[in-house]
Amino acid sequence: MGLPRMLKLTEAVRRNLPLRISLMIGSALSILLLVSLSIMLYFSRKAMKEDALTKASYSLEQAMTNVDNILLSVEVATGNTYWNLLLKKNNDIQQYGKKIVESSPYISNCIIALENGSNPYRNEAWYIKTLKTNTAKWMKMRIERDSVVEQFVSFCLPIYVPNQPALGVIRADVSLSLLSSIIADAKPSPNSYCALIDGGGSFIVHPTGDYLLDFSALKFQSKSLHHAVNSMVAGDTGYAPFDLNGHRYLLFYKPFKRAHVPNRSMEDHGWSIGLAYAEEDIFGAFTSLHNIVIIIAFVGIVLMYLHIRLIIRHRLMPLKMLTERAERIAKGDFKEPIPASLHIDEIGVLQDNFRRMQKSLDVNMSQLDELTETIKERSNELQAAYKEAKKAEKMKTVFLHHMTNQMIAPANAIADDVSTLCNYDQATAEKSVSQLVGNIQQNGTTITKLLNNLINLSEQEMDEEKGGKS
């Protein structure tokens, strides 16, 4: 069923000139419009992507600055009591820990562990590592309190005097949940997320705080995300697309760098900060604009086609009229007049020429009809004359036959009398010579009269023919 309908549609298009021209013009303009829209949308998408890169770069810098400011404030709050701590006795040490907590809204807990005296932290990794390196450092901590596990990032500052072993370690704990809530406010769009990971790919800062318990970003079921996280762990800068939970994101990332401050420990922790930017936030407006443009373009193409179709149909109406007149002329109707054109273009000139041709054909056909009628009348006259001539010829033949029959008897009588004269015997003859001669003369006179009548009739006919020709 599909192929016959397609063939009928193709045949209908081939037979309809206005439709065919409208489709050709509409197709050409549609292609031009679609190419223009494609180029415009391509560069619009490119500009929006560049704008997203700029926003993401700014947001990354802002988030990194916010985190670094928090870390720096903790370092400053801890360092401000460092020298005073060296001058106090052990029973006054813990008071400085409380002062450190009170001096910074970001510090949730502070521990001051000394080498001399009671120290329950001697065997813990943060304490041992800090004393061993004898440098200030930030470390991720996992602490369980009242059956509740919390994650912290802790600033560990060794307590030492020049040329002496370290006296202990100050540890200031910063809640990762607090950091995550602060970082969450730096997102540039509703569906974007900022995160901070360590050198192993585990979250230090997560926007929702759901993956802070030693959860590695490499555990997500997304190969594209694994590739991006590996680039972050390697310390690269850039962006990469990834899919997660049915959504498409662009992950912008860079190494976490702390601001340079005099006397600040600038140890590289191997952290990286990343911003997951939802594509619907980047290209959502573009997609809506794209759909609106497509709808407008489609409606515009339809309206443009209808307008073109209306104009072409109106302009080609004279051609349709001429086609109908040509069909009638082909059927022999030469009388219906063709109106004069109101246009001076090619179609108007064609209509005027066709009008003159129709008039000329009408005149010629009228003359031809008259000539045909005349020929028909002449033919009838000739046919009647032919019948009369044939009838006269027949009568002439009958007349000649009659005359010939009339001459046979005298001629036979003359022949008999001449034969009798040649064999004349007076004794046996029934008639005398004078009677025979008289009979011969009488019969000869009869034949002569008949011949004279024939000659006179022939001369009369010749005179009539000469008179008719003249």
From TrEMBL:
Stored Pfam families: HAMP
GO CC, alphabetical: plasma membrane
The record's subcellular locations are: Membrane
Chain ranges of the HAMP domain: 313-366
Main location as per UniProt: membrane
PROSITE patterns membership: HAMP
Q: What membrane topology was assigned to this protein in its record? A: Multi-pass membrane protein
Question: What EC identifiers does the entry list?
Answer: 2.7.13.3
Q: Which PANTHER family match?
A: METHYL-ACCEPTING CHEMOTAXIS PROTEIN, SENSOR HISTIDINE KINASE CPXA
Protein's name according to its UniProt entry: histidine kinase
Give the species: Xylanibacter ruminicola (Prevotella ruminicola)
* Phylogenetic lineage: Bacteria, Pseudomonadati, Bacteroidota, Bacteroidia, Bacteroidales
